[in-house]
Design goal:
By secondary structure, this protein is α/β, with parallel strands linked by helices. The protein has three domains: 205 residues, 3-Layer(aba) Sandwich (Rossmann fold), CATH 3.40.50.970; 159 residues, TPP-binding domain (Rossmann fold, 3-Layer(aba) Sandwich), CATH 3.40.50.1220; 189 residues, Rossmann fold, CATH 3.40.50.970. The chain has 24 helices and 23 strands. β22, α23 and β23 form a beta-alpha-beta unit. α3 packs across α18 and α10 packs parallel to α14. The protein is globular. The mean pLDDT is 96. Belongs to the TPP enzyme family. It comes from Thioclava arctica. One of its GO terms (molecular function) is 3D-(3,5/4)-trihydroxycyclohexane-1,2-dione hydrolase activity. Keywords: Hydrolase, Thiamine pyrophosphate, Transferase.
């Protein structure tokens, strides 16, 4: 047992790693290390000191070797999502471009409110060897460097200038990552000399600590206001966001909706809060939503938004709701609870729903509920037809239908950026709670494979017999595919569906929908590509150690998917899809994009007028 005067002499890097390895969290009655390990690429900014410290704790904090720093960050995000923000991974990169490669991943984690610890190399604090390799010099401020670029995209930022500093910095960084209101990435800049400096640390600093995630109780007055407004509702609706799952409030949401008979719609991040067959699940809302959800959103007079930041794809750029609809926003973050003059209930979703339920004596009008359910039945019929194979070109929706019919209910589905998030959100029928990850908070191409790898690492710690299935377009595959190799090396099996439409087809669709001619999106329409040709994705994936095959149609895809499920290693299935035909045409709300007010093209001018014709529905905040 240590006393308050006991000390232990360690380097800064050794102290950081020892402290991390002694932080725990209780989940479902089991104590687990809060940090599940890390992703690392070593270089001159982290290999000698941080690398030395990590070498001795390989069992406690496993280090996964990344192929690209950006994809390491995506993998850490996928890991945190799978663990519902209860656990996190660190990423370590060398000084210079290794660290700057993590900027996009930090932005993704920030936008999605995900915990991630960035331990990044920095230049020497003494400045004696300046300028050093890969240093970005600022002639007017020598303290200002590449690592300062992370300040806008992390929730906590510090540069460790002395070994004693981590006594405050590490607990503050961890507190930020665990705070439901401020959750996001934390960044620690580690100068190369400071990493190796030693200090007599209090031994008590490294004692085992078990953390708990705060559940903030709402203010009783805010609950009372919300109850009064809900009691007045004739057409109430719940928007269930990703925060419902992070609060582990799915059961509370379900019970509240059933008790008060309030229809529920889901955001992109909130997909899989309810199963597809739940009678009060009216479908996904917004730009990539369903006709059913958007139809009741237009009519709802009181909207209970739970755990959502109400981004534009959810709100149809704030045209999805009636002008006089009143919003009650339950959110742990005050900033999100206050949006568009919502009546705020600042607090944990599960605690807040319990408080509302206890005080609320109300049931929604049966006619409103049955009307919403009829809308859902109509939408289900459309989806069934949309995903069915037939005498038509291959489509994203058909591939989604095949996988949906054959996967296990507990398999995890991943998509991000491009056209697939819309197609998965609209067409996927949720089989079990918390099984869908559509990354559209920052909409990052390249997350599909890397995020799936991180999710699979997390999944293997809880549900090792399940699969992670990722839908990936050819554009995203070309942008970031190296974690196929990572998954093979680490024996974390993925099933990767590569749906090849010959370029950036969804942006080509947006280009065409706004009156513009196809240009620089599909390979066939790039003026600097004299002879376009397709990539042999099967050969490429095979070269990275995966099993791979190409199929011609949805029927062959079904057989290949069965083989992928039976395989013990990462399996890539490639299918060509049509870039123009087969898109989901229903379910879309208006989305504000900038269109030219002046153009020589009549088609562009007409499209601008058509686009602007829906602006009158846009809420101005009240």
């Amino acid at each position: 047992m240590t006393t308050p005067t006991d000390t232990i002499r360690l380097t800064t890097a050794q102290a950081i790693i020892r402290w991390l390895s002694n932080q725990f969290i209780e989940i479902d009655g089991q104590e687990l290390r809060l940090c599940g390990g890390g992703f690392g690429i070593f270089g001159h900014g982290n290999v000698t000191c941080l690398g030395e410290a990590l070498h001795g704790v390989q069992d406690a904090l496993p280090l996964y070797r990344g192929q690209n720093e950006q994809s390491m960050g995506f993998a850490a995000a996928g890991y945190a999502k799978q663990w519902l923000r209860q656990r996190f991974m660190f990423c370590t990169a060398s000084a210079g471009p290794g660290t700057s490669n993590l900027l996009t991943a930090a932005a993704l984690a920030h936008a999605n409110r995900l915990p991630m610890l960035l331990l990044c190399g920095d230049t020497f604090i003494t400045r004696l060897p300046d300028p050093v390799l890969q240093q970005m010099e600022n002639f007017s401020d020598p303290t200002f460097g590449v690592n300062d670029a992370f300040k806008p995209v992390v929730r906590y930022w510090d540069r460790i200038c002395h070994p004693a500093q981590i006594l405050q910095s590490l607990p503050n960084a961890l507190a930020t990552m665990l705070d439901p209101a401020d959750c996001g990435p934390a960044f620690l800049g580690l100068p190369q000399d400071v990493q190796g400096w030693s200090y007599d640390y209090p031994a008590a600093f490294f004692a085992k600590k078990v953390h708990r995630i705060r559940r903030q109780a709402p203010d009783p007055a805010e609950i009372a206001d919300a109850v009064a407004l809900l009691k007045s509702a004739k057409r109430p609706m719940i928007i269930a966001g990703g925060g419902v799952q992070y609060s582990r409030a799915v059961e509370a949401l379900t019970q509240f909706a059933e008790t008060h008979q309030v229809p529920v719609v889901e955001t992109i991040a909130g997909r899989a809060n309810l199963t597809a067959t739940h009678p009060l699940n009216i479908g996904p809302i917004g730009v990539t939503g369903s006709d059913s959800a958007n139809a009741i959103a237009e009519q709802a007079d009181v909207i209970l938004a739970i755990g959502t930041r109400l981004q534009d794809f959810t709100t149809g750029s704030w045209t999805a709701f009636a002008q006089n609809a009143q919003i009650i926003a339950i959110n742990a973050a005050r900033h999100d609870a206050m949006k568009h003059f919502s009546l705020p209930v600042v607090g944990d979703a599960r605690v807040s729903l319990a408080a509302l339920a206890e005080a609320l004596d109300y049931t929604a009008p049966p006619k409103w509920v049955s009307g919403a359910q009829d809308e859902r039945k109509t939408w289900d019929a459309y989806v069934a037809k949309n995903v069915a194979a037939g005498n038509r070109p291959n489509s994203y929706a058909q591939a989604i239908g095949v996988v949906n019919a054959l996967c296990d209910p507990r398999d995890r589905v991943v998509a991000a950026a491009g056209g697939l998030p819309a197609e998965v959100t609209a067409n996927w029928r949720t089989l079990d709670i918390g099984t869908v990850d559509v990354e559209f908070g920052f909409s990052c191409m390249g997350y599909e494979i890397a995020g799936a790898w991180g999710a699979r690492i997390a999944q293997s710690e809880r549900e090792p017999d399940q699969d992670v299935i990722t839908f990936c377009g050819d554009g995203s595959y070309m942008m970031l595919n190296s974690d196929i190799y990572s998954s093979v090396l680490s024996q974390k099996k993925l099933i990767v569906l590569v749906l090849d439409n010959g370029g950036f087809a969804v942006i080509n669709k947006l280009q065409n929908n706004t009156g513009n001619e196809s240009f620089n999106n599909l390979l066939a329409d790039c003026p600097t590509i004299p002879e376009p040709f397709g990539v042999d994705f099967v050969a490429h994936a095979t070269a990275m150690g995966a099993a791979a095959e190409k199929v011609a149609n949805p029927a062959e895809l079904a057989e290949a998917f069965r083989r992928a499920k039976a395989s013990e290693k990462t399996y890539v299935i490639v299918m060509d899809v049509d870039p123009y035909e087969g898109w989901t045409t229903q379910g879309h709300a208006w989305w504000e994009v900038g269109t030219p007010q002046v153009s020589d093209s009549a088609k562009v001018r007409d499209a601008h007028e058509d686009w602007e014709s829906s602006r009158h529905k846009q809420r101005q905040g009240v």
